[in-house]
Amino acid sequence: MSTSILSDSVSLGENTRYGEFCVFGENVTIGSGCVIGHAVKIHTGSVIGDNVRIDDNTVIGKLPMKAANSATTKEQTLPPATIKSNCIIGTTVILYRGCSIGEKVLVADLATVRENVSVGDFTIVGRGVTIENFCKVGRYCKLESNVYLCAYSTLEDRVFVAPCTATSNDNYMGRSEERFKHFKGVTIKKGGRIGVNSTILPGKVIGADSMVAGGALVTKDTPEGKIVAGSPAKVWREVDSDQLLKNQGWPE
Description:
- By secondary structure, the protein is mainly β.
- The chain is built from one helix and 33 strands.
- It has two domains: 1-63 and 78-129, UDP N-Acetylglucosamine Acyltransferase, domain 1 (3 Solenoid); 147-174 and 183-240, UDP N-Acetylglucosamine Acyltransferase, domain 1.
- The protein has one helix spanning 179-182; strands at residues 5-6, 11-12, 17-18, 23-24, 29-30, 35-36, 41-42, 47-48, 53-54, 59-62, 82-83, 88-89, 94-96, 99-101, 106-107, 112-113, 117-119, 124-125, 130-131, 135-137, 142-143, 148-149, 154-155, 160-161, 166-167, 187-188, 193-194, 199-200, 205-206, 211-212, 217-218, 226-229, 234-238.
């Protein structure tokens, strides 16, 4: 006898299989050829494409929690979580209701993707990455282990973010109503690259094809095609021509 619990309204595609102790809620749709591990929880209405792998102990479609003094979590009706085809979702991942994962995305173990977040096709979300709410991550991006992407941030296509990068959206650190006039995440333009253990302060814009050196503290917008380094970060030199996105021969 199976130890898993599936609502009568779950739709399972052909050749999809799942492990023990899974729980699939009402009106969940799972495409064909999926492989779902043990103790996976898929909440009401979630939609999963074809050939998706979801590893053990992962939660899809979790409802957000709202603290009494939260500045970013809102009471709202959210659409179901969606995962398009050919994705790999690691173990102990949490994907919130209201998030959208594109095709051929990898979300590695222990990552969290909040509500009102979209992740574009072919993007890699590394181990332990947190993407907070109201974020947009483009196509062909790579967020390496333990990146923290704060709420209200935008990453355009082909962005690279090295391990342990931290971002912020609140200059007032939770004190006074003044913070709400300036509350803003970070923006990384197309092809921007962020070095290991960098910190980007609220509202800053990383220019297209700009590179932030490892350990830098970004306190100002960075110019397109320049390398910035230091604390605070300052322009060092231009990005080498052979490193520019336009010279890689990659598809748009």
